[in-house]
Amino acid sequence: MIKKHIQLLNNAIVKEINHFSLRGKSKLVGSNSLRGMLFASDIDVNTDIKNITPKLIVKYLRLACVEMENTHLIEFKAGYDKQGEKLRWSREDIKKGVLRGIKLEDAILQKSVVKADLIVRVGNTYEELSLNYFIKIGKQSNFNKQTKEEIQADLEADIDEYYKTNTLKSIKRLYSAMKLEKGNKEKLKKMESFFNSPVGLENKIKNELDTLLKVIDLEPWENIYQCLQGIKQELGNLSSISTNKLIKIDYVTKKSAKKLITDLMDLLMKHINAESLKFLKSL
């Protein structure tokens, strides 16, 4: 599969990537970075920021928060407090510039994951967008460069961790590990076909439902309801969920929506895991 350019995403998403790149250089990573991956869901971006002062980075981040359109900043991860607990910054925290006694300018240069998690409204759907920041200012940086062996070890740990709870995710980590080692091309092709199968579509829909749960209290109910109608139509093309269960979407209310969404996600996850385990054993 060939790499996908950021400009091939919806303009509404590209706009937020431009805002939150904070004058750094960004590129797509993960399944959404590949053309031919039909059912990629979350959009992951790596952003390299070099030789910009921490003060300027924070200034650009505050500006990005102001310029957001139809977008929610779910959280901004950066640094640790004095007790070693991870810091998760809200828009208000970013505006203040201090959280639990730690300045944001200092937090972004701690050796930690620095990441913005956003949800962007695109028409009648919502897209999750994450930007991971790799910041280097002179000899200071917020990351340690991983060796190939360390990356491989992390992937293998993920394969084991997700094997039973999220088998498709485990297979995706296996795919990445095999690509890193330039492994069996025939098996890689089989995995790509599986990712583009109805199971891949089910997984994409499950992730769309999960995203809805995150914005259900932040967005107008009519928008959420229209999104659910679109999901009903998508699921209607599959056979994993009964007609009666899908028709319940027509009668859902804001009060009952969270339970319905959770029930649908559980049904999809159960079927995805079962089919993924079958595939993994046949690989």
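[next item in queue]
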Amino acid sequence: MLVAFVFNIIVYLCKNKIQTSMCEYAEIENIKLSNGKTIKDINKSVRNEVEHIYLEGWSKGISIPFWDKQGNFYLANPDGSEDLVEFNRKQRTYKVVSRVADKGKGRYAYLLNR
């Protein structure tokens, strides 16, 4: 992949064609960055750190908030369940709307079995 800055627009060369959108992950995952790590290495490190944050919070009984691509807020609970919540930004509070995943069935429940 070749990246060039042209008039403040990033242009990518993916599969020998120029495009102004992102390349496919498979096309860039093995590119070495200036720190000697690949994009795949960095993503793995980030994933491991996020998993560590969830496990540490759960060990203290804290439900960890996250949101989906549509902007819906959820709480990943220490028992592996998941709640859809309404987040009040002004008061910084959560109100549970509904349980969307039972105990051990949430998006991050796989971490409990490690």
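[queue empty]
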